[in-house]
Amino acid sequence: MRALDTFHGGVHPPQHKDESSTRPIAVAPVPSRLVVPLQQHIGMIAKPLVKAGDRVLKGQMIGQAEGFISVSIHAPTSGHVTAVDMQSIPHPSGLPGMCVSIHPDGRDEWIEHAPIDFRNMDPSALRNYLRDAGVVGLGGAVFPCFIKLNPGPKQKIDMLILNGAECEPWITCDDMLMRERAAEIVRGIEIMRHILQPAEILIGIEDNKPEAIAAMRAACALTDFAIDVVAVPTIYPGGGAKQLTQVLTGKEVPSGGLPTDIGVQSFNVATAYTLHRAVNFGEPVISRIVTITGNVAQPQNFEALIGTPIEELVHLAGGAKGDTNGYILGGPMMGFKLPSPSAPLVKAANCVIASSPELFKPAPRAVPCIRCGRCAEACPVELQPMDLYWFSQAKNFGKAQEYNLFDCIECGCCDYVCPSHIPLVQYFRFSKSEIWAHEKEKRAADLARERHEFLLFRQEREKKEKAEKLAQKTAAAKATPTTEGGTEADAKKAAILAAVERAKAKKADAAPKNMENLPPQAQQQIEEIEVRRAKMKEQLHAQNQQEP
Amino acid sequence: MTYIAERTSVSSIMLKVLFALLPAISAYVLYFGPSILVNIALATLTAVVCEALILKMRNYPVQPFLLDGSAVVTAWLLALSTPPLAPWWLIVTGTAFAIVVAKHLYGGLGSNPFNPAMVGYAVMIISFPVQMTQWVAPEMLALHHLSFSQELHYIFGGLLPDGLRLDAITSATPLDTLRTQLKQQHTLSEIRQLPIFGYLGGKGGEMVALWYWVGGLYLWQQRIITWHVPVALVGGLAITATFFHVYDADRFVTPLFHVFTGGVMLGAFFIATDPVTGPTTPKGKLIFGAGIGFLTYLIRTFGGYPDGIAFSILIMNICVPLIDTYTQPRVFGHQDKKKQNVP
To answer: Which residues of A touch B65 (CB under 8 A)?
Structure first.
């Protein structure tokens, strides 16, 4: 038995896992339409490769990875592109995103694809392949997988952790995947092992999933390398990457650092599964397993195509009951209400819960914080949420940062235990976004100030130079003897003339001679700079008006 | 915002606190007569009326805030700190001051820096020291018993039955007796022979203290309070008392006596544990509790007031922001400050 550590706090909400884990994973049929967002991962949005009217094949790349942190997006089935435009997407902001809409032709015709020989492949080529296959972390953060598989030459990975904890209530997609497809997950782990060469491999599964633990143990027994399947205590948020790492290793991921700093890399079990499909079958990520549960007739897990409208999945689960008042994407602790049930399934969507007033009682009216400290007891990061709340409410963001606001993982434990029913995490998100916005403004202001200071410096320098020139000239004039019989009046006249001459010269100087006859390219650049400057001025002006 | 939550509320916390006081109140009635119930009723009524009026003046929704029960808790704690046979206007004044000034003028629930009940108590003992020290003698010691209606007559009219003097029904508290006897150069062993003293503290009072302790254990079991403040408070008091007791056993009474007399148990489990006016960090709670215990001993032994728990709590209330600032726990993933300094 492995000695397990614990993390601070945590809560024990009712599980509600049995609702959806009693039925096997069903394969959802190809829906009537597909809306595939081009951003389903952390990083840069993929660049669309298709336009309305194009025919696409199943698995065809329709969005190309752009920038370093990005992955590609693929057509989930064959059909015609009907639009590339802004559509409602599942995002907490409720704002639409760029999507490729596909009308399936029903043939489900694959593009040519083949397994790759990862063992005899150049590591960087393999990583590029994974980026182009759209493999991302399916635990919720949807971080591009190929980056996590490239910890850099200096980082030695001692331990590879597979996260099968699935600590949030209601969600069972990882549980069912482990029960039914344990061998495939292990094949995915094999690929990770090949790339990362860890000394040890662990799979952490909460002990409320005995079937999954048994299935994974059976599958791991067949490998030629050691994988330790560890049952971890059931406590929310035990499936948080940092929390699971602490439980399994006793080590804390440093604040602001990465797990690799302590020699650990972790992936969700579903990520291992998609990695296996991508490498050993050549299939990009075009589907995922999602739990449809809550206020539906037959809660169940479905393997559904990315882009499937969520309402069609709800329909497959027997439909929502009459008193359904919305859909939560994710779990009840960290999830958010979908802007519309027609929003598409995305790679990050592990669970959809139909909510009803009976299942999820509306939060009672918030009353003042009485500093009871339950939030601090429950916080897995050992923050003092009541203090952060106080600072957030007072918009004392500096103090909030000082009290480590940015270590908050937004798990919701504080909300869960608060007897005053204060939506604490919302306050923290607000503070974080305000601080980000402020930093951005500050950077812009810094730039403007630097420019202004340089302008002053230049003006000062020019003044000095002119003064020096003038001093030299007057010195020269004094040195030369005055004209014969010269009177004071003559001298005065001469001085006036000289002054007029100087003024004329100055005028000529002031006209920017170097701006004449510029090539059109340079002219354009100057214009652009002017536009940027004007914008900056406007921003500064607006800012000044906001905080006089 | 989470979609699920534990079924707790401020009201349920306050109700549990009131519930935890019931055994001690029963013991109080048993040993000192039912007049304490009159005091509690008066205080509750005053608190609710004042709370409702000032909520209305502050444009707060009256009903939800009134139902949180915090005003009633303040009222009960204050009533339990006041002599049961005090005139009716005393507890009314004290409670009104506690709710209006100490609580609402400082911002209301959650914002008041000082414990309202203790502010009310301090106002009463400073303004009306005579009435505040007329404690009822325990039933087994009183020379005469008042009937409940006679008690009501006295509380509301100040009238005693003919031929009865106040001395016959009241007595000095154990702490008072100790103080005056010590001044008269008696030794402790002689003083402890007086009938007013029981096994642990004063007769009657020690039993009430025991029930406060039981109620406190219930609050701890219900996770309403943590162990830190009561343990540190009793510990701070006991350690200081032990130190002096060992130094001169004839002049300084035993730590056990200190712990079971006066308001220590009530203060340790019900008043110093008030989350609003206390620190939030575990280390801070220990400092806070120990500070109260230490100051209580100093005030009792060397100060001018018989009991020091209320003033100690108020003094430590002032220190809370400072204590909290310097006792922040280490956050996950951050280096220990001590370790950080070591190369």
So the answer is: 367
The residue of chain B with its CA nearest to that of A412 is B2
Q: Which residue has the tokens 């336009």?
A: A51
What is the residue-wise DSSP string for A285-351? S-EEEEEEEESBSS-EEEEEETT-BHHHHHHHTT-B-TT--EEEES-TTT-EE-S-TTPBP-TT--E
Helix (H) or strand (E) holding A97: strand A97-104
Structure tokens at A82: 């009907």
Coil vs helix vs strand at B55: helix
- Note whether A161 and A264 are within 8 A (CB): yes
Of the candidates B312, B306, B309, the residue with the CA atom closest to the CA atom of residue B180: B306
> How far is the CA of A487 from the CAs of A475, A482, B2, B77, in angstroms?
19, 9, 96, 105
Residue A505 CB-half CA count within 13 A: 9
Mutant choice from A16, A261, A371 vs B, greatest count of B C-beta within 10 A = A371
Q: What sign for the dihedral angle of Cα A29, A32, A38, A43? A: negative
Residue partners of A228: CB distance under 8 A and separation at least 6: A2, A200, A201, A202, A203
Q: What is the chain B residue with the closest CA to A92?
A: B1
Of B10, B110, B332, which is closest to A252 when you measure between CB atoms? B332
Q: Which residues pair with A161 in a beta bridge?
A: A202, A266
Sequential pLDDT tens for chain B (343 residues): 799 999 889 999 999 999 999 999 999 999 988 899 999 999 999 999 999 999 999 999 998 888 899 999 999 999 999 998 889 999 999 999 999 999 999 999 999 999 999 999 999 999 998 888 888 888 777 767 788 888 888 888 888 887 777 777 777 788 888 888 888 888 888 787 787 787 777 788 889 999 999 999 999 999 999 999 999 999 999 999 999 999 988 888 889 989 998 899 999 999 999 999 999 999 999 999 999 999 999 999 998 887 889 999 999 999 999 999 999 999 999 876 544 433 3
Number of H helices, E strands in chain A: 16, 17
Distance CA A232, CA A240 (A): 12
Beta strands in B233-276 (DSSP E): none
Kindly give, in sequence order, each residue whose CB lies less than 8 Å from that of residue B303, ignoring residues fewer than 6 positions away: none
Q: Residues B105, B97: contact at Cβ < 8 Å? A: no
Distance from C-alpha of B176 to C-alpha of B261, rounded to nearest angstrom: 11
Alpha carbon distance A244, B231 (integer Å): 34
Its pTM stands at 0.83
- B274, B289 Cβ separation under 8 angstroms: no
The helix (run of H) or strand (run of E) holding residue B151 is helix B148-157
CA end-to-end distance (rounded Å), chain B: 42
- Predicted interface score ipTM higher than 0.90: no
Q: Give me the sheet containing A61-64, strands edge to edge.
A: A47-48, A61-64, A73-74
Give the closest-approach CA distance of A449 to chain B in angstroms.
35
B24, B215 Cβ separation under 8 angstroms = yes
Question: What are the two backbone dihedrals, phi and then psi, of residue A100, each rounded to the nearest 5 degrees?
Answer: -105, 120
Angle at A30 between CA A26 and CA A32, to 5 degrees: 130
How far apart are the C-alpha atoms of B264 and A20, rounded to whole Å?
Answer: 54
- A404 and B334 within 8 Å at the Cβ level: the answer is yes
Distances in whole angstroms, Cα of residue B108 to Cα of each of A228, B65, B250: 55, 10, 47
What is Dmax (Cα atoms) for chain A? 120
Nearest Cα of chain B lies from the Cα of A435 at a distance, in angstroms, of: 20
Q: How far apart are CA B211 and CA B202, in angstroms?
A: 14
C-alpha distance from A92 to closest chain B C-alpha (Å): 11
CB B275 within 8 A of CB B228: no
